[in-house]
Amino acid sequence: MPTTPAAPLVILECLVAGTSHRDNLAEHEPQLKINQPLVLRREADSTFDDWAVQVHTEPAAGGVWLGYLPEGRNETVARLLDAGKHISARLTHKSWEDDWLYLNIEVLLHE
């Protein structure tokens, strides 16, 4: 009997940090959709955060750099990425608060 793949495990729910420093987000925000898959990329050479993890849209969606996982909440995800685990994210909420784009995501661990 074939087994179906297990649903990914939500390992972190958080805001995307640094969206106010991404100059192009206002033009890309209309294309961001709730439940949209996102790509996490390790930035091991960051001078600001040893555990930096970038958040991007998928290449098929333009590969837009949205920001980072928040410092202080990113170490486990960074270690899992460093170990070669399949980690992704999905957008769960978006809204504008003045000139700040508020993006909430879930980080997912896949088998």
Fold and architecture overview:
With 111 residues, the chain is mainly beta. The chain is 11% helix and 39% strand. It is built from two helices and six strands. A six-stranded antiparallel β-sheet has the order 1-6-5-2-3-4, covered by helices on one side. It starts with 8 loop residues before the first strand and ends with a strand. This is HIRAN domain-containing protein.
Q: Which properties best describe this structure?
A:
single chain, 111 residues, mainly beta, Alpha-Beta Plaits, six-stranded antiparallel sheet, 2 helices, 6 strands
Please write out the topology.
Blueprint: E1 9-15, H1 25-28, E2 37-42, E3 53-57, E4 65-68, H2 75-82, E5 87-97, E6 100-109
Antiparallel strand pairs: 1-6, 2-3, 2-5, 3-4, 5-6
Strand adjacency order, main sheet: 1-6-5-2-3-4
Instruction: Give the oligomeric state.
Output: single chain
Largest sheet: 6 strands, antiparallel
Shape: globular
Radius of gyration: 14 Å
Report the structural category: mainly beta
Mean pLDDT, all residues: 94
Helical content stands at 10-25%
Determine the strand fraction and express it as a percent band. Answer: 35-45%
CATH architecture: 2-Layer Sandwich
Q: Report the span from N to C terminus.
A: 19 Å
The third-level CATH topology is: Alpha-Beta Plaits
CATH classification, class level: Alpha Beta
